[in-house]
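TICKET: design request
STATUS: open
ATTACHED STRUCTURE:
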């Protein structure tokens, strides 16, 4: 298995009381990155509609940021105070961006993000 240990990551998905509320890549929308304090490499937000008897309306935000020599992944539901964060060391930034996009496009539940990263990191890096 390649060396890409998952280590605890500190940091908040929200700065102050203002949530990151748009989807952006670095350089694609400078206003959004300013809103995010220019600390995130990418931020995605997925909205789920209410489907009676199946699911409640929900919003999940995924974010990627560089923290020292690691890349930190964040995932949070709007309706939950709990944020799921972990970081990977020795991971290529471009690949980390693709991982974040994968999680967004496949609507990975925030609580599953660490397991998905463990699975994908072991086979893709």
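STATUS: resolved
RESOLUTION: sequence designed for all positions
ATTACHED SEQUENCE:
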């Amino acid at each position: 298995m390649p060396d890409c240990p998952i280590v605890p990551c500190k940091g908040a998905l929200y700065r102050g009381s203002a949530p990151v509320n748009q989807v952006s890549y670095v350089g694609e929308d400078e206003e959004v990155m300013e809103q995010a304090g220019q600390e995130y490499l990418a931020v995605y937000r997925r909205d789920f509609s209410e489907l009676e008897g199946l699911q409640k309306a929900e919003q999940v935000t995924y974010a990627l940021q560089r923290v020292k020599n690691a890349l930190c992944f964040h995932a949070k539901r709007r309706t939950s105070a709990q944020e799921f964060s972990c970081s990977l060391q020795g991971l290529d930034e471009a690949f980390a961006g693709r991982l974040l996009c994968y999680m967004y496009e496949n609507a990975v539940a925030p609580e599953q993000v660490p397991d998905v990263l463990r699975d994908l990191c072991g086979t893709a890096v």
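CLOSING REMARK: The chain is about 25% helix and 30% strand. Helices lie at 30-35, 93-105, 113-124.
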